[in-house]
Amino acid sequence: MLIFGLTLFIATHLFTAYARGPRAALVARLGDGPYKGLYSLVSLAGFVILVMGWKRTAAEAVYTPPEWGAMVATPLLVFTFILFTASYLPAGRIKSLAGHPMSLGTILGSFAHLLVNGDSRSVTVFGAFFVWGLADRFSYRLRGDSGASGTSLIGDLGAIIGGLISSWVTVRFLHLYLSGVPLDPAGLFCR
Predict the structure, then answer these.
(1) DSSP 8-state symbol, 184
(2) Do residues 2 and 56 touch, judged by C-beta distance below 8 A?
(3) What is the rounded (10 degree) CA torsion for 127, 129, 130, 132?
(4) Alpha-carbon gap, residue 177 to 191, rounded angstroms
(5) Is 64 left (phi over 0), alpha (psi -120 to 50) or beta?
C-alpha cells in the first residue's frame, strides 16, 4: 500500500510536469475544471493510500540520524510550510525568490525528515519525495518557467502567518493523526 500510494501520488504529479502534450489533450477533452478535479481526486487517493500504507509498514532501521538533525530539521520544516503557503498566494518576495515554492518546499521538507528519521519507510517516502521535488524543479527549467515574480506584501505576510499556523496545527494535531508518530512536546517537528 505504501509503495502503491506513493507511486500513484507522484506519478500524477510527474504526468503534469513531463507529459505536457497528453496533459493538454486531456484538458482539451475534459475541460480545465474537470481535469483539475480528476487530478486532485487521483492525487488525494494516492495520498490517502500512502498514509494507510505508512501506518501498516514496519519501520526498520536503515541509518542512524545525526544528533543535530532535529535542530536543523525544525527550522527547515517551518520554512517548508511557509513555502507551501506562498505557492497559493499572490507573488511576494518569498515566492519570487523560491521560483516554485511548492517544489522547493518538497525538497527541503523531505531532506529535513531524512535528517531525523533513518527508518525504511521514511527513507522510501521522503527519499522519493526528495527526488520528485528535484525532478519537478528540473521540469520547470526544461520549460523555461522561472516561476512567479512579484513584491506583494500581502503574499509574503500571508505566507509567513499561514506557514506558522500550518506548522503549529501539524505539530499539535496532524502529524500524530497522519503518521502515528508523536512529536516532541517542545515543538520539534520530528522525533
Answers:
(1) P
(2) yes
(3) 120
(4) 15
(5) beta
Asked whether the beta carbons of 95 and 101 are under 8 A apart, the reply is: yes
Structural contact between residues 38 and 70, judged by C-beta atoms closer than 8 angstroms = no
Residue carrying C-alpha cell 515566492: 95
Listed residue (147, 153, 160, 163) closest to 96, CA to CA: 147
What is the enclosing helix (H) or strand (E) of 134? Answer: helix 120-143
Determine if the pTM surpasses 0.85.
yes
Q: Are 82 and 158 in contact (CB under 8 A)?
A: no
Nearest Cα to Cα of residue 99 among 49, 51, 145? 145
Amino acid, res. 115: L
Position with higher pLDDT, 149 vs 184: 149
d(CA 30, CA 26): 6
Average pLDDT, the chain: 91
Q: How confident is the model at residue 187 (pLDDT cuts 50, 70, 90)?
A: very low
| 89 CB burial (10 A radius; 0-12, 13-18, 19+) | buried
Residues in the chain: 191
**Contact indicator for 183, 190 with CB cutoff of 8 Å:** yes
Q: Is 119 helix (H, G, I), strand (E, B) or coil?
A: strand
Place of cell 536543523: 72
